[in-house]
Write the structure tokens for this entry.
Amino acid sequence: MSASALPVQPTPPSPTQQQTAEARAAFTASLLSAGTSTVESDLKARAGDLHANTAAIDKQEQALLKETKNLGREGDKWQKVVDDSARGLKETGDVQNWAEMLERDLCVLEDTMAMVDEEAARVKKAGADGLANGWR
């Protein structure tokens, strides 16, 4: 076969620099938009969640403050009970001390009365013995 017998295929026109730059820009833009839209939508969703959760957090904060105040009041009540109990124990201790002092005084009186009774019995016996011996 001769070289002239071969069918000649037309060669495609070579792209110009402008077409190449436009194709490159279009490809880059499509990549950026595909990546950006996914990332952007994720960020927007997260930002929306954050804003939605802010209201819930504010509500929880208010409830926590209210419960903290209630707990403080309850603590004050318990402190009053403790103070009253301590005062009662102190008074009980004072009463116990008073009772011990009273008991000591009564023991002293009892001993004194026992000595008086012994002395009276001795004097009575001595008087009876004296009468028997002629004493008057």
